[in-house]
Write a structure and sequence with these properties.
80% helix, mainly alpha
Length: 209
């Protein structure tokens, strides 16, 4: 609250934009209404200053807020508005992250075919910029979407490709958790395909991870 009042009291510029983004990070992935208030104020000031980068960032965060609160139509609207603005700018800022959010939303809605299409776009951007964390998330999402469409062999291909991106990430607890999850994904698919020997192999790898 205090920090938001401070930001409101100074002239908006790129420094203030960065401060808004830092403030929002404290509420990231929460349903907190304060998160909404900050993002909405960010959007208002960015628009008044004709700061397209700030507007894209604020719209994306508003999309995240509504997604967290299961207001899917509103979330999709904000992500789409952010996407359209990003496409108009050189370098398409934030586009990969926006598409990843949008693909995840579509997956949660069981719109697997559209989720796959959007996640592939996110993957291309992540690979081109060497954002291996986003690339890994995109590959997982593509694999999950393909699995939802019963395209099991193709899903296996993308899950296997995810290991390549994972290997390029710095060592962390999250990295090992994702690796374990990927082994479990592969084990479940092979069990579904009655490839029990391969399923057991991946389960063993998960426990040895």
């Amino acid at each position: 609250e205090k920090k938001l009042l401070e930001l409101k009291s100074v002239k908006y510029d790129s420094v203030v934009r960065n401060e808004y983004e830092k403030l929002i990070l404290n509420y990231y992935n929460k349903k907190d209404f304060e998160y909404f208030r900050i993002a909405k104020d960010f959007e208002k000031n960015a628009k008044l200053a004709k700061d397209t980068l700030g507007t894209i960032s604020s719209l994306t965060n508003l999309g995240q807020y509504f997604f967290n609160n299961l207001e899917i139509d509103s979330s999709y609207l904000y992500y789409t508005r952010a996407e359209k603005l990003s496409i108009k700018l050189d370098g398409n800022p934030y586009l990969g992250a926006i598409l990843l959010c949008k693909a995840n939303l579509l997956y949660k809605q069981k719109n697997y075919s559209e989720s796959q299409v959007v996640a592939v776009r996110a993957l291309k951007i992540a690979n081109s910029k060497k954002f291996y964390d986003d690339a890994t998330s995109s590959l997982f999402l593509i694999g999950n979407s393909l699995l939802g469409m019963n395209k099991n062999e193709l899903a296996i291909k993308y899950y296997n490709n995810a290991f390549n991106s994972l290997n390029k990430l710095p060592e962390s607890e999250q990295k090992e958790t994702l690796r374990l999850l990927n082994y479990v994904n592969l084990a479940m698919i092979h069990q579904k395909l009655n490839n029990n020997i391969k399923a057991v192999k991946y389960i063993d790898k998960a426990f040895k991870n």
